[in-house]
Design brief:
Elements (H helix, E strand, L loop, with lengths): L1 H8 L4 H22 L3 H20 L3 H6 L6 H18 L6 H31 L4 E3 L15 H4 L2 H6 L3 H13 L3 H21 L12 H15 L3 E5 L6 H5 L2 H5 L5 E5 L2 H5 L8 E3 L3 H5 L8 E4 L7 H4 L5 E4 L20 E4 L2 H10 L8 E3 L28 E5 L14 H13 L6 E4 L10 H22 L8 H26 L4 H7 L4 H20 L7 E2 L7 H7 L2 E4 L3 H6 L6 E4 L6 H7 L7 E3 L6 H9 L7 H12 L6 H40 L22
Parallel strand pairs: 2-3, 2-5, 3-4, 5-6, 6-7, 7-8, 9-10, 9-12, 10-11, 12-13, 13-14
Antiparallel strand pairs: 1-4
């Protein structure tokens, strides 16, 4: 029942649900206490509403955000509490006293301060918002960007300003108890003085040296940097905050390019979610600003997603445009007809080329280039994977990863196995005999469109957690407490160091300051990469090799899960294509119930997979391949499919990728030189024509009316 209420209220936890309930009940309690009247009951109810409101705001609760949509926003809630306090004073026969009128005047004046406060906060934020935001771009030497105001002034500023009424409310309640106006007037004075000081403190930040240069100067500085840096290959991306992973997966490949890389983003929210990188990044929200940007040296533009804003870069003829995507699968999105707009489409292997040919969406075979998948380098091959601790010992517990994709936008039942098969899969895995360990790692978009998928996701989490608790209580699954304690201690040390390193980067006051100071420290960047590897190793050692686990959030990464598991169950998505790089057994769910043969015909990536029905009855075949590799009948099929989908192991994918970039850059340069030659030839032809028509060459007389060539009519 509680979990249902949490989903309905869209709060993150039972604590948030309790805080929301207390806040909602607190206001009727305030009215009742004011009418009785009871100062102590009113004070208790007021404390509950203050604390619950503050907690929900600190948690960023969806419910609190929605209250403003039904005219019950933060300001209204504070105003209602203050009006009920005035009602309490009236009910206590204080309406003829000076303190009563003082309270009314205080609250009117206090709300009068909200307007200049809100205006100043908005002005500061708007004036400090530059037309671009950058990382690893040296703007500090080109334009003056002042420090941001102290974080405490602008962070949750409206909430802080409104909470200044605490002094007045407390003083007035004390006055009501003591029957003395002094505490009330002291509280009123403190509230008004603090409110005025808050407003005055903000005023210097709206003008003069406290604000960044105007848009024209900032854009000129960016162009100056671009002329000096001379970028050659651009990774262009536009999307929502939840799609940041699509650009993040390409950052390491961009760092390994032989040409000068640049990342161009279109949404500020993507920049805040961008993974650490040494590549220069420019976020340009304005289409006009982007189209006027100095990108004359760029020869190749790479696109990770098909979105409308791509047109702002596609219009540039001096560079070649390539769709590289954000994963390789048999989904319809992988053969989007929009891909026709690009000069080339790069796929991982031959399968991608064949996929476009079968789809017949207008992408020519000559425009498809196979470059492998540079992102798959961290995935260890089956023979390269380190043996699990105790693998040779009796009682070794294989690990099966369940990594379903999300439900998608179109409601197709074949998109995800969660709704129809997810619970069956997990139930059979946790009850398998001999036992296996289950790792459940859902797609980050799970439940964002379908309520059924979200509910199934929650039920699967409950199944995994229940099975984990039962196994932990089973004496057959002994743990090495000393080793686990050591791993957890190491994990804490690494996390503390990572927090220290990331804290230095997150100390920037706002976007403008982060742009000014956002040049990566290469040594720290390398240290973070090393620590993340150590963190991953310590994480898996921090709990038992038999312990079921729900893997939520960004860490550990999906590829880390690939490396520790012995097999995987998933759906049609790029996850399957990526997992094939490991060479390990895998199963894919035919949620749409097409039948095994038709399912394999339609989806290349499942041709070497165990095909599961929604009942998951076929899981035994997958588990048999894990427990007895010699009896794995699909091993050779997986090897052949790997090359077909992902290309050959040699040359390496990053070498293929660099070669493709270099070849396309040469094509772009050849095209540009040809255009320049034609333009020059056209200019010469125009000059010759001008010379022929100049006064130095007498023009032929124009025959008069009635005359013909060489004769007249006389």
């Amino acid at each position: 029942m509680i979990s249902t209420a949490i989903r309905v209220a869209r709060v993150g936890s039972a604590a948030e649900l309790a805080a929301a309930a207390l806040m909602m009940l607190g206001f009727p309690a305030l009215m009742l206490a004011a009418l009785i009247p009871s100062v102590y009951a009113f004070a208790a109810a007021a404390a509950v509403t203050y604390l619950a409101d503050h907690y929900l705001h600190r948690k960023g609760s969806y419910l609190v955000n929605r209250l403003s949509k039904v005219r019950a926003g933060l300001s209204i809630r504070f105003l209602i509490r203050q009006l009920l306090l005035v009602l309490l004073l009236a009910r206590m026969s204080l309406s003829d006293g000076l303190i009563f009128y003082g309270a009314i005047a205080c609250f009117i004046a206090f709300y009068g301060l909200q307007a200049p406060h809100g205006a100043l906060v908005t002005l500061i934020r708007n004036r400090r918002r530059m037309p671009v935001a950058t990382r690893n771009v040296d703007l500090a030497s080109r334009v003056r960007i002042p420090d941001a105001p102290p974080r405490g002034l602008l962070n949750r500023s409206a909430e802080k300003m409104l909470h200044l009424d605490l002094a007045a409310v407390t003083g007035l309640l004390v006055s009501a108890v003591l029957d003395s106006a002094v505490p009330g007037f002291i509280g009123i004075g403190v509230t008004l003085v603090l409110g005025c000081l808050y407003v005055l403190t903000l005023m210097p930040y709206v003008r003069g040296t406290k604000i960044p240069p105007n848009a024209e100067k900032v854009l000129a500085a960016v162009d100056d940097w671009l002329r000096e840096y001379k970028p050659e290959t651009v990774l262009y991306f536009s999307g929502s905050k939840d799609s940041a992973y699509q650009v993040n997966m390409w950052l390491e490949a961009m760092e390994q390019l032989d040409s000068k890389p640049l990342v161009i983003l279109r949404e500020r929210v993507i920049l805040t979610s961008l993974a650490p990188t040494t590549v220069p990044v420019i976020c340009v929200p304005g289409g006009v600003h982007l189209m006027n940007m100095e990108l004359s040296t760029v020869r190749v533009a790479l696109y990770a997603a098909n979105v409308g804003k791509n047109i702002h870069m596609l219009r540039v003829p001096t560079m070649k445009h390539v769709f590289i995507g954000h994963g390789d699968s048999d989904k319809l999105a992988s053969v989007n007809p929009f891909s026709k707009v690009y000069d080339e489409v790069w796929t991982a292997g031959r399968a991608g080329r064949d996929r476009y040919a079968i789809a017949d969406v207008g992408v020519r075979d000559d425009d498809i280039v196979e470059v492998g998948r540079p992102q798959l380098a961290p995935i260890q091959n089956r023979q390269d994977a380190p043996p699990a601790s105790g693998a040779a010992a009796d009682g070794y517990c294989p690990t099966v990863l369940y990594a379903p994709t999300w439900e998608g936008w179109d409601g197709n039942p074949g998109n995800t196995s969660l709704v129809l098969a997810g619970e069956n899969i997990v139930k059979k895995l946790v009850k398998a005999d001999p036992p296996v360990r289950v790792l459940y790692k859902p797609h980050p978009f799970t439940g964002t469109v379908s309520k059924q998928a979200g509910a199934a996701h929650q039920r699967i989490i409950a199944l995994v957690e229940k099975a984990a608790a039962e196994r932990a209580a089973d004496s057959r699954y002994a743990v090495d407490a000393v080793a686990q304690a050591g791993a957890k201690s190491e994990l804490a040390r690494i996390e503390a160091r990572l927090a220290e390193l990331s804290g230095a980067a997150s100390d920037k006051g706002d976007e403008a300051e982060a742009t000014r100071d956002g040049v990566v420290d290469v040594e720290k960047h390398a240290e973070v990469a090393r620590l993340r590897g150590e963190w991953n190793d310590a994480y898996w050692r921090s709990f038992g090799s038999f312990e079921h686990r729900v893997i939520a959030g960004a860490e550990p990464r999906l590829y880390d899960c690939f490396n520790v598991c012995d097999a995987m169950v998933s759906d049609i998505s790029s996850v399957v294509s990526d997992f094939i790089a490991s060479g390990k057994p895998y199963a894919v769910t035919d949620s749409a119930e097409l039948g095994a043969e038709e399912f394999k015909r339609q989806n290349t990536a499942v041709r070497a997979a165990v095909i599961l029905s929604n009942s998951a009855a076929e899981l035994g075949e997958l588990l048999g391949a894990v427990r007895a590799p010699a009896a794995d009948t699909l091993a050779e099929d997986r090897k052949e499919l790997k090359e077909y989908l992902l290309g050959p192991d040699e040359p390496t994918s990053i070498e293929q990728f660099n070669r493709a970039v270099a070849d396309l850059a040469l094509k772009a340069q050849t095209r540009n030189l040809g255009q320049e030659s034609r333009a020059a030839a056209g200019a010469v032809g125009a000059d010759e024509l001008s010379d022929q028509l100049s006064p130095a060459q007498p023009a032929q007389p124009v025959p008069a009316a009635g005359e013909t060539d060489g004769a007249n009519t006389r």
